[in-house]
Structure formats: structure tokens, C-alpha cells
Amino acid sequence: MAKVSLIGYSIRVRKTRSKEYADLYSFDGTNDLFSVFSQYFSKYSNSSSNAIYPVEDVPETDNKTMSIDPVQINGRLIQGLIRIGDYGYITPIVNRKSRKLSYTRNIEDTELVPL
């Protein structure tokens, strides 16, 4: 994995089948999208590092997990690291150099990949 990375995300919101993007300060006619994100992430802002949470609003049958490093909210800036993973299958983990089995992943194990 890279030692240094720079990842930028741009968020745009539009209604289904609409070609026009909403104003993020009033994306649904009343709510500021920053306030929505701020509220969602604020519950993780005082959490301990590497805490794992189920991904909300996703059926448990999708077998998704999420890890959020403590989030910092400063003004209109939200900072943090979100990792998403899948679970629900058994697979061998092999060392690429020795080509030997290092570990057998269990059904409840999840590999958390940074977004």
C-alpha cells in the first residue's frame, strides 16, 4: 500500500432521473448537506480508534462493516478515515513471498479497506 496518498472527493446530489444538481446548502429544500454529514459523523468523533460499526442503512445480508477513525469536525471541514469491508466467506490468506498459508479467514472476519 502507498505510504503517502492524496484522495479528493466531490459530492453532488440530485433527485432520481433529474439532470440538475441540488444546492448543497439546501439539498432537499431545507437541510444543509454539511449538517447531515456532521450529525452522522459526530457520533464517531469521540470514539476510540479502530472501532468497527455495522454499515447503517445496508441490509445485514450484504455483509458490510465499517471502521471510522475518530472524526474531527472543524468549521465546515470533516476529517477522518473511513474503511469499508466485507465479511461472510471463508478464504485462505497466503503469504505472497513464501506462498504458504498464513491464515484462514473466517466467516466473521472482514478486511477493512480505506476509502
Which characteristics define this entry?
single chain, 115 residues, mainly beta, 4-stranded antiparallel sheet, two-stranded antiparallel ribbon, 1 helix, 8 strands, 26% strand
Description of the structure:
This protein has 115 residues and is mainly β. The chain has one domain (24-114). It has one helix at 33-42, and strands at residues 52-54, 64-68, 72-74, 77-79, 82-86, 91-94, 101-105, 113-114. A hairpin with a 6-residue loop joins strand 6 and strand 7. The longest helix is centred in the N-terminal third of the chain and has 10 residues, at 33-42. The chain is elongated and about 55 Å long. It comes from Thermoplasma volcanium (strain ATCC 51530 / DSM 4299 / JCM 9571 / NBRC 15438 / GSS1). This is TVG1538342 protein.
Parts with pLDDT < 50 across at least 5 consecutive residues: none
Task: Tally the beta strands.
Answer: 8
Strand-pairing-aware structural class? mainly beta
In terms of DSSP E residues, the strand content is 25-35%
Rg estimate, integer Å:
18 Å
Largest sheet: 4 strands, antiparallel
- Write out the strand line-up for the largest beta sheet, numbering strands in chain order: 1-2-5-8
Number of domains: 1
Between the first and last Cα atoms, what is the distance in angstroms?
13 Å
| Morphology | elongated
